[in-house]
Amino acid sequence: MREEVRAIMINNLVISSVPTTVFTTMAFVSLSFLILIILIKKFAWGNIMAIMDERANKISSDLDGAEQAKIEADALRQQSEEELTLARKEAAVIIKRAKDNAENSAQSIVTEARTEALNYREKAQHDMALEREQLIESARHEVADLSVQIASKILKKELNADTHKELINSYIEGLGTQNED
Questions:
Q1: From CA 62, how far away is CA 56, in angstroms rounded?
Q2: What is the per-residue DSSP string for 28-97?
Q3: Domain membership of residue 141 as a residue range
Q4: Interaxial angle between packed helices 46-156 and 161-180, expressed in degrees from 0 to 180 and rounded to the nearest 10
Q5: What is the reported pTM?
Q6: Is 155 a member of any domain?
Q7: Percent of the chain having pLDDT more than 90?
């Protein structure tokens, strides 16, 4: 029994002489909770809120940075697409210019070749005409010489058919030896 008395006394000292009821227990727990909140607010709440604000600011800045990076990436992608389109257009212009230059060069080469061929042809025709005139002139001189020689031999000899044939054959043979000289 002594122990029971001691427990009751200790109980009465701690809570004093307030009888323990549900209401008193609720009031005691509420008061203790309120004191705990006041102590937390006074000593820890500022630090906790600073950490939470810092965390919120970091998350916000990370989201803003990600959004900014996305905007920059889109701008770079669009710029690179525009540059690629421009490069393709420039390449098409260069290729067209090169084709035009090649066609012009080919046409000028063909025209020049035709002109040269025409010049060579005209020169060849001119050379052939000169050579023909020279051959005709040479033939005239030979015929004239032959005619003079035949006339002089005819005057020296009277011609009959056999003599006439011999004379022609000898002159033909003489022509062959003269042309070889």
A1: 10
A2: HHHHHHHHHHHHHIIIIIHHHHHHHHHHHHHHHHHHHHHHHHHHHHHHHHHHHHHHHHHHHHHHHHHHHH
A3: 27-150
A4: 150
A5: 0.39
A6: no
A7: 43
